[in-house]
């Protein structure tokens, strides 16, 4: 992703590291959008978060199903660890996904069990990877 002037980060992403952010997959740009206090602060090819809670707006999800037109209604809230890293460290043993046409929640890909939160998450190419220390709904 190309860098642009943004007051929220410096060369090493230090200004927004450690801040609470909201992250969602941007369908138009095919990357992750990072928001802080409802303001877009960056686009990234990858994002690492800790203390993550997953959220889905059921009202907006129903609109997606009814209109067959996607809108931002599902995201991960957490503390930003890093973004735009080419590799991620180990310990992310589960794949997490979301499909508004299947379920109204984020789920573990292998078991289809709902996931409400996770200790750490790495957001890669349209999929999330989480640590085993997670809470099921």
Structural overview:
- With 137 residues, the protein is mainly beta.
- 7% of the residues lie in helices and 44% in strands.
- It has one helix and ten strands.
- It has one helix spanning 58-67; strands at residues 20-26, 31-36, 39-44, 47-56, 74-83, 94-97, 107-108, 115-123, 128-130, 134-136.
- Strands 1, 2, 3, 4, 5, 6, 7, 8, 9 and 10 form a ten-stranded antiparallel beta sheet that branches.
- Strand 1 and strand 2 form a beta hairpin.
- The longest helix has 10 residues, at 58-67.
- The chain is globular.
- The N and C termini lie far apart (35 Å).
- The mean pLDDT is 84.
Topology diagram in text:
Layout lengths: L19 E7 L4 E6 L2 E6 L2 E10 L1 H10 L6 E10 L10 E4 L9 E2 L6 E9 L4 E3 L3 E3 L1
Antiparallel strand pairs: 1-2, 1-5, 2-3, 4-5, 4-8, 6-7, 6-9, 8-9, 8-10
Name its key features.
about 45% strand, mainly beta, about 140 residues, 10-stranded antiparallel β-sheet, 10 strands
Number of E-type strands = 10
Describe the global form.
globular
Distance between the termini: 35 Å
Low-confidence stretches: none
In short:
This protein is mainly β and 137 residues long.
